[in-house]
Design goal:
The complex is a heterodimer of chains A (298) and B (128). Chain A is of the alpha/beta class. Chain A contains twelve helices and five strands. The chains are: A alpha/beta (298), B alpha/beta (128).
């Protein structure tokens, strides 16, 4: 009675039996390579995956993936596949292929192959079960490897870009003797704020600057942490003997700062960069005028 | 370690060479406030370039020196605060408000000269 209720259990296979099973499986899948590959590509196109690639390209990639897939099933080693997945990701990420597409095609292949196993071993339930037992973990591992490889490659690209942006993000430019400008564009996160402080203070020291104009026209928003950090930067610069003028506060930022109650009493603010530079020149004792007027005066 | 105080024209220059104990700071304060009167100095420059740490007592002493010498007729400038020290001070809320600061000794002296020009020519000073 008990036995009737439980599923038909198959005695767990030995590692050897699993390996033998996989070998047979791989041989079968190799034999039917052309047909299965064709079927897979058909399903990829039906599911509208990899739309950024042409049919020929999909077919070429599918062939490589199919072969690596069988290699993994056969050898159990995912290293070669990992390398291939990285390489593939490098090639297709710039073309705008999304994560769901990559996962989608690998899972489709898994399904195509699983169906094939059903067709072949469907008549013998015990064998089918054994085959699936051997096939499923390997297939899942492959899906994970490819997915992880793709995501890692993406993250690597993102990190690289962040690095590049960070390097470009806070230039400190001397415009006149003892006058620096810092145009800031884009969102300031705490990390960037720290970097900005460092750059500004170092810039003040190396250029012996008296005045620095920090232009935040290109900054869409500021939160209280960053605002406080800016105030601290301004005060630190004062301790080095330099005055900081902040320019280009957008209406949104001005409202935010007042609403959250950041103490801006110590900040020197001017409407726009032009005004800021004029103010700085005045502080430094420069007077800029058209040549004609200057010659008349002089 | 005592801090050497040099007289340079109308100004006194105190150049701190190493980390100071509280007692040293106290002594520096006394010496400066006294000597400002003795030499009839118009300004004091305290150079802290050599310090890579400034605690709250040091900052308070510097502020006290500035206020005390001001009462005795001399303006004090703190010069040479390192960038990292400056940011650390601000984070601790030690901002040396109402005390003049400058990048280095040269700048500090320039500030004092500029200031004395603004407050009128000094008697006995050559040029102006």
């Amino acid at each position: 009675m008990d036995q009737m209720l439980t599923k038909p259990t198959i005695s767990p296979m030995s590692a050897e039996a699993t390996a033998a099973m996989l070998r047979e499986l791989v041989a079968h899948l190799r034999q039917n390579r052309t047909r299965l590959r064709e079927e897979w590509v058909q399903r990829i196109i039906e599911a509208q995956l990899l739309t950024a690639m042409s049919k020929e390209e999909i077919f070429a990639e599918a062939t490589s993936v199919y072969d690596s897939y069988l290699d993994v099933l056969e050898t159990g080693s995912v290293e070669a596949l990992q390398a291939y997945a990285r390489n593939l990701s490098e090639r297709i990420i710039p073309r705008g292929v999304e994560t769901h597409e990559v996962l989608g095609i690998v899972l489709l292949l898994r399904d195509v192959l699983a169906r094939e196993l059903f067709t072949r071993y469907g008549s013998d339930f015990g064998t089918l079960n054994n085959v699936l037992e051997a096939y499923e973990p390997a297939a899942n591992r492959i899906a994970t490897t490819v997915g992880v490889g793709f995501v890692q490659e993406r993250e690597r690209v993102i990190r690289q870009q962040q690095e590049a942006i960070r390097e470009l993000s806070t230039p400190v430019l001397p415009v006149r003797e003892r006058l620096l400008i810092l145009p800031i564009i884009g969102v300031i996160d705490p990390m960037r704020a720290r970097q900005l402080t460092e750059q500004l203070l170092r810039g003040v020291r190396t250029n012996r600057a008296k005045v620095a104009v920090m232009d935040i026209t290109g900054v869409p928003a500021i939160d209280s942490t960053v605002a406080n950090h800016l105030v601290q930067t301004v005060e630190s610069a004062r301790l080095l003997g330099a005055t900081v003028i902040v320019t280009g506060l957008s209406p949104e930022i001005a409202q935010t700062l007042v609403t959250i109650g950041v103490d801006l009493g110590k900040m020197n603010t001017v409407g726009d960069l032009q005004g800021g530079i004029e103010e700085a020149e005045r502080m430094l004792g420069y007077k800029v005028m058209p040549v004609r007027e200057a010659t008349q005066q002089g | 370690m005592a801090v050497p105080i040099l007289k340079q024209g109308n100004y006194l220059i105190a150049s701190i060479q190493a980390a100071l104990t509280d007692a040293d700071l106290f002594e520096l304060r006394n010496a400066l406030v006294t000597q400002v009167g003795r030499f009839r100095s118009r300004g004091v420059v305290v150079d802290v370039t050599a310090l890579d740490v400034m605690d709250s007592f040091a900052v308070r002493t510097l502020r006290d020196i500035a206020q005390m010498t001001r009462l005795r007729g001399a303006e004090t400038v703190i010069v040479g605060i390192q960038p990292e020290v400056a940011f650390a001070m601000v984070q601790l809320g030690l901002t040396l408000e109402e005390v003049a600061t400058a990048l280095d000794l040269e700048e500090g002296l320039a500030y004092l000269v500029e200031r004395s020009k603004r407050t009128g020519p000094e008697i006995g000073s050559h040029g102006g």
